[in-house]
Amino acid sequence: MPKQLIFKNIFFLLIGLFILNILIGLYLSVKGNKSFNASSINYVIQDKEMATKLSDRSTIDYISEAKEMINIFEKYNFSIDSFIKDQSSNLIIFSSLPKDFMEIQPVNERKDLFINTLLPIAFIENLKILDDRKKILDWWDQSNGETYLREFWPNWLFNLSDKYNYEGSNVGELLMRVDIVPLSITLAQAAIESGWGTSRYLREGNALYGQYTYDKETGIQPRDRDKGKKFFVKKFLNLSESTQSYLKNINTHNAYRKLRQERGKLRMNGESLTGLSLAKYLENYSERKGEYVKDLIQIIRTNNFMKFDRAEGLIN
């Protein structure tokens, strides 16, 4: 057999072995991740001092059961009490609730896990808003409070105004939108809208706050939707994205303009932002109007959610 033919056969053999090796690797990878894709959720441990910045060194880990989630909170000393007393330097961010969340008994333990899961997420997303607010205030202070036409704004301020759906030139009006929603309200609304973490929309689409969409590709159709209605409940990739969307809704939608105005007055007067002082301006969040507000205030009071409004880092 000619040497050229031998070398050619060896070359093709090596190429074939290389491709086979890749295919085997892909098969094993898919096989190994089959159970992960079906039931696993990811989580990240965040240092409280660097809460708004996900470090490149942050490790993403995975769990699949509620028992594992509870163990993670215990391992890193995160609880409602440790958060309130500022005794834990760790914030644990889970992407979703586990599939067996509804099996947790007693109910009070399930509610505690729901709050433990949502609390660090709501805290971090509010801190991000405060970072935006501080950047605007620092720039305004350096400008001696002068009013600039929008075309003279720096690029980063343009980007922030777009982020908060603001098209005007009044920095003061922009700041009305760039502010926190008290944790007591955030937690209470999540409890109402998701049935303390038991709703189908939360299980299927990380929908904590019952926000609507008219895009069926990004929403879940309610089973009891009235004939002729075309809305869906918006779904999200994770709980953080759901919370971001909720906060933006409160900070930009015209339905909550009165809440933002009252919040601005409290800021101007140097008063604390609390759920009990702002909850009454959320009657437009539900068709139940005043009854919804009553339920919201009752949940805040009954569960003593007021204590979360004094969290270190979010106090005025």
Explain what you see.
With 316 residues, this protein is mainly α. It has a domain at 39-123. Helices cover 52% and strands 7% of the residues. It has 13 helices and 6 strands. It has helices at 3-32, 34-39, 66-75, 80-84, 107-142, 155-163, 171-177, 183-194, 200-205, 239-252, 257-268, 275-278, 290-302; strands spanning 41-47, 60-63, 90-94, 212-213, 219-220, 232-234. The chain has a 3-stranded antiparallel beta sheet with strand order 2-1-3. It starts with a helix and ends in a 14-residue tail after the last helix.
Key attributes of the depicted protein:
316 residues; mainly alpha; 52% helix; 13 helices
Short description:
The protein is mainly alpha-helical and 316 residues long. The chain is built from 13 helices and six strands. The chain is globular.
* Strands in their spatial order, largest beta sheet: 2-1-3
Structural class label: mainly alpha
User: What is Rg?
Assistant: 25 Å
Count of alpha and pi helical runs: 13
Mean pLDDT: 88
Contiguous uncertain segments of 5+ residues = 26-37
Strand content: 5-15%
> Roughly how many Å apart are the termini?
86 Å
Envelope shape: globular
Query: Major β-sheet, in short?
Result: 3 strands, antiparallel
Number of strands: 6
Helix content: 40-55%
Order of helices and strands: HHEEHHEHHHHHEEEHHHH
Give the topology, please.
Blueprint: H1 3-32, H2 34-39, E1 41-47, E2 60-63, H3 66-75, H4 80-84, E3 90-94, H5 107-142, H6 155-163, H7 171-177, H8 183-194, H9 200-205, E4 212-213, E5 219-220, E6 232-234, H10 239-252, H11 257-268, H12 275-278, H13 290-302
Antiparallel strand pairs: 1-2, 1-3, 4-6, 5-6
